[in-house]
């Protein structure tokens, strides 16, 4: 039979064990409460991608949607609240479908630099070509991106001078400017052409004089250009010679 003194001597260890168990239980409860509190971040209505968004391709409105997601108050990213804020922006990285669009992942077209700038709006089968311009050559700087121009070539041959419109409906997608603000003038026009047209224009730039006329906006024919059946890709351009130009534009050499 246990003596009273033995039982009394073991009682402090029993109390200590109970105290340690209580401390463990309290610690678990605090951890659970903390996890529950941290997981209950407030919901924020943000713009998300409704399909995969690729770098350098301006974002259309139909590729975006609105969704409420939990965002911790300390989260460093800045999100957008409306589709209009994101539409037309250029992704700097691939944004997966369902992912919230943050200010770190997109930029305005005129703010996206270097390799991350937006793709030029060149239809399949076409190329962009930059041609020189000036105030008198290019309609006193009235030509702007989005306009359509015609190209007039003037050729001097065998003592005779002749001028002819060689191309119409060339879409201008960029205007190069030089000078200070308020006194800048256009120095170049970037137009959309086939590679075959690019060769012809290059020949005329070297051996003739070019002038541009600005077409009426009522005559513009915007929209996706179908590939030219005579020059569907850059591989269809086979070079330009004087004989080719004379055959293609005989009135310039009569």
Please tell me how large the radius of gyration is: 35 Å
Tally of structural domains: 2
- In whole angstroms, how far apart are the ends? 136 Å
Which percent bin holds the helix content?
10-25%
Molecular structure report:
The chain has 4 helices and 9 strands; from the N terminus they run H-E-E-H-E-E-E-E-E-E-H-E-H. The protein is an alpha+beta fold and 254 residues long.
What is the structure about, briefly put?
18% of the residues are buried. The protein contains four helices and nine strands. It has 254 residues and is α+β, with helices and mostly antiparallel strands.
Give the topology, please.
Layout: H1 4-39, E1 43-49, E2 64-70, H2 83-86, E3 90-91, E4 106-107, E5 127-132, E6 148-157, E7 160-178, E8 185-193, H3 195-207, E9 209-214, H4 242-248
Antiparallel strand pairs: 1-2, 3-4, 5-8, 6-7, 6-9, 7-8
Keywords:
two-stranded antiparallel ribbon; 9 strands; 2 domains; Type Iii Antifreeze Protein Isoform Hplc 12; single chain; 254 residues; alpha+beta
């Amino acid at each position: 039979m246990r003596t009273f003194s033995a039982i009394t001597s073991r009682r402090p260890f029993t109390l200590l064990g109970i105290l340690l168990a209580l401390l463990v239980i309290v610690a678990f409860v605090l951890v659970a409460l903390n996890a529950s509190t941290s997981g209950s971040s407030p919901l924020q209505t943000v713009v998300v991608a409704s399909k995969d968004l690729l770098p350098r391709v301006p974002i259309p409105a139909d590729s975006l949607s609105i969704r409420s997601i939990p965002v911790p108050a300390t989260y460093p990213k800045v999100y957008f609240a409306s589709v209009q804020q994101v539409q037309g922006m250029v992704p700097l990285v691939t944004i997966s479908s369902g992912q919230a669009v943050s200010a770190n992942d997109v930029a305005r077209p005129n703010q996206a630099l270097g390799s991350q700038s937006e793709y030029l709006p060149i239809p399949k089968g076409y190329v962009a070509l930059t041609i020189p311009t000036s105030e008198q050559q290019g309609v006193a700087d009235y030509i702007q991106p989005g306009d359509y121009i015609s190209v007039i070539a003037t050729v001097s041959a065998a003592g005779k001078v002749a001028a002819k419109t060689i191309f119409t409906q060339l879409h201008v997608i960029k205007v190069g400017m030089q000078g200070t603000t308020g006194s800048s003038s256009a120095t170049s026009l970037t137009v959309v052409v086939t590679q075959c047209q690019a060769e012809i224009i290059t020949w005329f730039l070297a051996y003739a004089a070019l002038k541009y006329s600005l077409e009426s906006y009522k005559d513009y024919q915007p929209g996706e250009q179908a590939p030219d059946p005579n020059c569907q890709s850059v591989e269809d351009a086979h070079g330009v010679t004087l004989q080719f130009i004379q055959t293609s534009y005989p009135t310039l050499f009569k």
